[in-house]
Amino acid sequence: MKYIPSIAFEEMSGSAKGVTAAKMKSRKYIRNRGYGGSVRTSDQAKVKGIFKQLTTQWKSLTSAQILAWNKLALSQEGRSVLGSKAKISGSNLFTRLNYWIVACGGTALVDPPALVGVETPSSATIACQGDTFTFKLDQDLYDNGGIFLVIEASEGQSNGVSRAYSKAVSIKMVEEPDDSAIDIRADYVAKHGAPSAAAPKIFFRYYFVNSQTGEKSGTMLAECKWEPAASVAAPEISGTTPFSDSTQVSISGPDGAEIRYTTDGSNPTAESNLYSAAFSLSATATVKAIAIKNGVSSEVASKTFTKSE
Question: Which of 146, 229, 242, 285 is the most buried (most CB within 10 A)?
Fold first, then answer.
């Protein structure tokens, strides 16, 4: 394409060798063509697949169905039915609503649904210390039938970053959530890797989606700071040794901690015997114990009890 720059900027638009000149609403633009990268994540491929499916389905709708979607779009202008207020077309409304329906495991609607709105989630309590990483809504939904909670999180940011909500990506969808704690550690690590002290700040966005209509609630923002696990003191093992017939073994640990122990010399884990009261030994044995508090385990305490000849 050949053109005179002054003409292109005044009344025309056109492209040459990847550069576009245009004038829109009294503003002049020069744009370079963007080229997407060849690497695509599985999440990106999934989203692209859903949009491709919906684009094909829109083209197969009848004239009456298209008119119905256009009519619904006109009636929803300025309303926050999708989580944002904007002028939308019938095809745009069809794609946005059906995206969430399909993403939640449903089948795309060919006829527009009756829109009922979705309440915005309450504030949330996020615990992120050591290997403990949970997300908990402070208040349950009034009616959570068919509602999904979508949790988005950013990768770890340095302490100097004060706002990085735009970097949050979806890590978990929870069907019909309540106000119980949700373990999100495995989901977060799979997406971003384990939190670290070098980049401890994590920014969240979360919202509800109606899996029947595709409506999205307003978006809530939150942030948390990962902290290393606090150390837990090792328990103390008491009892007489050596002993003649038998001996009573008691174990004490930090307040609020549970005690797990073994008597065969192996190192205890969170699945080992739970200590609740003193127990008796009538043969030589090595007792080992750990204290566990808030998901953090102490060092192993050990004591050998010997039966005299």
Answer: 285
